[in-house]
Amino acid sequence: MTSELEARWNKALARAGEIEAKIAKHRTVAPQPIPMSASQVAALAGNLRAVWTAPTTDARLKKRIVRTLINEVVADLDGGTSEIVLVIHWVGGVHTELCLPKRRRGMGCHNRHGYLPVRNGHQLVHVMAN
């Protein structure tokens, strides 16, 4: 009995070590920013809505755009207003706060106005374009 428990424990420790190594590797591999002048960045920002909504822009490109522009997103729950408060930390140091309605019990992914993540995704794109 103890030998079986010890074998399971050792297997779990080995798996935990593998996961920790993957996390450490992921943290060390940081994407390098592409050097651009301020005028190049401004020109791209002016065309962001057109690029985002173009039928040729696939999900992979949209993810690359988001990863290029956003450093991190911090989420918090506001119990008083039943909202999810997102603070977007943009590359360059600007922060934007975005409040989204918290999904209520029984509400599912849909409400009478449509699918919440998509609607709020459009709100995020609007924030990115400004």
Give the tags.
130 residues; alpha+beta; two-stranded antiparallel sheet; 5 helices; 5 strands; extended
Characterization of this structure:
- With 130 residues, the chain is α+β, with helices and mostly antiparallel strands.
- The chain has helices at 2-28, 38-46, 48-53, 59-69, 116-129, and strands spanning 70-78, 83-90, 95-101, 110-111, 114-115.
Describe the structure in brief.
With 130 residues, this protein is of the alpha+beta class. The protein has five helices and five strands. The strands form two sheets. A three-stranded antiparallel beta sheet has the order 1-2-3. A two-stranded antiparallel sheet has the order 4-5.
Percent of residues in beta strands: 15-25%
Q: Mean pLDDT across all residues, rounded?
A: 78
Across the major sheet, the strand order is 1-2-3
Instruction: Give the overall shape, derived from the CA principal axes.
Output: extended
How far apart lie the N and C ends? Answer: 63 Å
Give the tally of β-strands: 5
Summarize the main sheet.
3 strands, antiparallel
Low-confidence stretches: 113-118
State the secondary-structure class.
alpha+beta
Order of helices and strands: HHHHEEEEEH
Helices, by number, come to: 5
- Summarize the amount of helix as a percent range: 40-55%
The radius of gyration is 21 Å
